[in-house]
Specification:
239 residues; alpha/beta; six-stranded parallel sheet; 37% helix; elongated
């Protein structure tokens, strides 16, 4: 997948995908054209649908939007609404052949919420996710929730995490479970405790993803640990 600016794809209710940014109009697909499409061999139909539904850049996964007109996408999601056959043929292509992300490194903080909006039957079709994270110093506290959601993606084969933390390394951090307003500096034994927690979260997560074949961890504080995780996934945790 290209690293160019991502396109928007928004789950809404129980619909497979938002109708935003559609490049084709189902009203223009007359009955004879529909019949012709459905008479094609499955592989030919899948190839056509791939041209409509696979984006050259990452697709944004978001909960909703109050200003739909501000979003656009290069995938023609309305093809899913032509009929049941095209719907069921299109879903694995739409979810399984695109890489999903969020709009900014900051919005990845709510990626667990974004994923919860995707119907379960479609969630299992997602095969590739790439996230940039600038809230890395809260990883130990927030990532368990995201890891749970990612663990529900039984078809996930590629996961790329890039830490682009811009926070001040000397910033005080609120410690979960301590009185509100109590902060600690990420240094000394506190820093070691947080880093060890983060490493355990990441290791448990990727080892639990049985379908995962590609894992990239860029910008993590412990580069050697990141490398070992990547190699472990690549080798299927053998050797």
């Amino acid at each position: 997948m290209s690293d160019s600016s991502p396109n928007t794809l928004i789950p809404r209710g129980q619909e497979p995908m938002s109708e935003l940014g559609t490049q084709i109009s189902t009203s223009k697909l007359n009955s004879s054209l529909k019949a012709h499409l459905l008479s094609l061999p499955t592989k030919v139909l899948q190839r056509i649908l791939s041209h409509l539904l696979v984006s050259p850049s990452r697709l944004l996964l978001q909960r909703d939007t109050s200003t739909p007109s501000t979003y656009s996408t290069s995938v023609a999601t309305n093809v899913l609404f032509v009929n049941h056959q095209l719907y069921h043929t299109s879903l694995p292509i739409l979810y399984g052949s695109n890489t999903f992300t969020t709009s900014t490194p900051a919005t990845s903080y709510d990626f667990d919420i974004h994923l919860s909006c995707v119907p379960g039957r479609n969630k299992c079709l997602i095969s590739s996710i790439a996230l940039e994270i600038e809230w890395g110093r809260q990883l130990w506290m927030k990532f368990p929730l995201i890891a749970i959601r990612l663990g529900e993606l039984r078809g996930l084969r590629s996961l790329r995490l890039h830490f682009v933390d811009k926070q001040d390394p000397d910033e005080d951090i609120q410690i979960q479970g301590e009185p509100k307003g109590t902060t600690r500096r990420r240094e000394g034994h506190v820093a070691v405790m947080m880093l060890n927690t983060e490493k355990k979260i990441l290791k448990d997560m990727v080892k639990g993803m049985k379908a995962l074949r590609v894992f990239k961890l860029k910008g993590f504080e412990d580069a050697e640990f990141a490398r070992r995780l990547e190699v472990g996934v690549r080798n299927g945790w053998k050797g």
